[in-house]
């Protein structure tokens, strides 16, 4: 773990880990009625917005009603996806023993089956965060988002692929579980995906039937307007989720790591990797709620199973610990972080992303190990 260890001494890493463990233990001990009331209120708000939105679409012949209906339905889908579904399925409320808040039973309003997502996201991504060739969320098997990903002419379309992924994000999340990149490498066969595909078809059929058949038909002659309204709400949710997730994982200075660096990783080293491989987004209280508090991606990667509403409460403390140990705490506005991601996507579409214009030279961004090697060579 050369690159990560060079940040701090082994003793500092372990003390750093203990300080973060102390935060976690304090929050876990404090969980209670306020947390339960909060998530129940968010669920109640989400359901109210969905009822309001679908009701207004029955008056879709009146443009202001259609616009308001789409707006309410969009907010409903964003809340369901970000602050409710994502966080409940992380097990953040399993301690309540409430079946409605069970990570294993919850199903969200998106085409990606919850069971598939829990494996690819909760296990793969959060265990191997930003480890090249282990964390499949690096580029989602579609994009070149890290300079250590070998360039291919295919990546000249990087910005186009990213735009399409943003528009069809829920479908991208669903198809991500097929692991096309592993199939292409011969590590997995199409037959191996049968169970995953069956769940996908079942879930996608329900979602398509609900948004594009059932509810449009219920509005009779307004069916085309209702279908358009549902599609617009899904598009809004897709663009929002894409923006928040990419801004938390891929802005400039977010680091990636090699498998060699993370061998025999201690808890303190795991914490360190989460901080170096994540970024936050600044904003107000409503912004944080609509982002599922993934605007606090650093805190989320540190404590993925703690209720996300707690992240703003500990953000300053986590930042203070980073400052104490001389570690970066990557944060910025949505505009700044999104612009940084866009710049990276364009830059990495091209083969020459190395220092001094030399494709074989040391990477200007990338894994800590490679940067440390470059500094040593210099």
From TrEMBL:
It comes from the Bacteria. It comes from Amycolatopsis marina. This is Fatty acid desaturase. The keyword Ribonucleoprotein does not apply. Residues 369-378 have a biased composition (Basic and acidic residues). InterPro entries: FA_desaturase_dom, Fatty_acid_desaturase. Residues 65-331 form the Fatty acid desaturase domain. It holds the Pfam family FA_desaturase.
């Amino acid at each position: 773990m050369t690159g990560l260890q060079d940040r701090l001494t082994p003793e500092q890493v372990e003390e750093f880990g203990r300080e973060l463990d102390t935060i976690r233990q304090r929050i876990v001990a404090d969980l209670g009625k306020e947390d339960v009331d909060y998530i129940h209120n968010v669920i109640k708000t989400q359901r109210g917005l969905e009822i309001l939105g679908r009701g207004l679409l029955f008056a879709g012949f009146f443009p202001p009603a259609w616009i308001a209906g789409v707006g309410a339905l969009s907010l409903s889908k964003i809340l369901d996806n970000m602050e409710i579904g994502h966080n409940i399925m992380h097990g953040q409320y399993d301690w309540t023993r409430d079946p409605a808040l069970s990570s294993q039973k919850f199903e969200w309003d998106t085409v990606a089956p919850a069971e598939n997502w829990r494996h690819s996201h909760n296990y793969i991504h959060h265990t191997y965060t930003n480890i090249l060739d282990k964390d499949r969320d690096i580029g989602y098997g579609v994009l070149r988002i890290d300079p250590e990903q070998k360039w291919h002419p295919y990546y000249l379309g990087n910005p186009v692929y990213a735009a399409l992924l943003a528009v069809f994000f829920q479908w991208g999340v669903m198809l991500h579980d097929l692991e096309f990149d592993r199939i292409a490498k011969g590590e997995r066969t199409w037959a191996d995906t049968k169970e995953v595909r069956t769940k996908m078809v079942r879930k996608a059929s329900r979602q398509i039937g609900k948004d594009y058949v059932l509810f449009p038909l219920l509005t009779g002659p307004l069916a085309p307007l209702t279908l358009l309204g549902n599609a617009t709400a899904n598009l809004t949710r897709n663009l929002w989720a894409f923006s928040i997730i990419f801004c938390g994982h891929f802005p400039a200075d977010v680091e990636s790591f090699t498998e060699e660096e993370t061998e025999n990783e201690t808890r303190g080293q795991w914490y360190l990797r989460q901080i170096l491989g994540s970024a936050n987004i600044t904003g107000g209280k409503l912004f944080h709620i609509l982002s599922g508090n993934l605007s606090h991606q650093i805190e989320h990667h540190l404590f993925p199973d703690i209720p996300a509403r707690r992240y703003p409460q500990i953000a300053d403390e986590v930042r203070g610990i980073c400052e104490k140990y001389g570690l970066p705490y990557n944060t910025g506005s949505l505009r700044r972080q999104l612009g940084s991601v866009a710049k990276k996507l364009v830059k990495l579409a091209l083969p020459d992303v190395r220092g001094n214009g030399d494709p074989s030279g040391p990477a200007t961004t990338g894994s800590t190990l490679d940067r440390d090697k470059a500094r040593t060579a210099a």
